[in-house]
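Morning run. Coffee first, then this:
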Amino acid sequence: MATASSLFLASSPISTAPRNRAGPGSAASCPSSARPSLRLRQRPAPAVAAAVQAEHQPAVAAAPKPPALPFRVGHGFDLHRLEPDLPLIIGGINIPHDRGCEAHSDGDVLLHCVVDAILGALGLPDIGQIFPDSDPRWKGADSSVFMREAVKLMQEAGYELGNLDATLILQKPKISPFKETIRANLCDLLGADPSVVNLKAKTHEKVDSLGENRSIAAHTVVLLMRK
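And here it is:
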């Protein structure tokens, strides 16, 4: 199991572009007639791993070493409000849409959900405790940073991914044209074979904020196997 120090990230700030709202005529708007184009977000340098201040996560420092179980199961859930003229990032992919997630980081609901599932399986605090939104270093941060740290913790604890099943819940846009690109990037971040990573997408039948295109949510279940 990783020590508390392995959860800390470098004190130098992450270089991320501000998530500015776009004006009516800017490139961020996506007319319905425009052909969707996918853009893989540029990943932060590998050097981004070593020290979030200990005072931000007392629960992490005090976390007991988990028993060496043959397998562990974790569940993750995340939800973000959708607002106009923000980028919609899902699984590290910029999806063309007229709304995006309002969040402290890049608002990637899928990666946040997967991180929480892995941390939960390991018996560790959730993503909000390890990467608090009160820390300005995570403002607009690329969520692949959080994913890589979760995978590192999994490996240091002596586990590998058995399989992962994730479900996106959103009314718009349709995810089917982008699903395989998202899944491929998720596999890359996890270092996993595509055969053990499953991704589904559901609408919310126009019910509540999810069905009214005012929010987006995701559920993830992971099985970790002892190496």
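The mean pLDDT is 79. Good start to the day.
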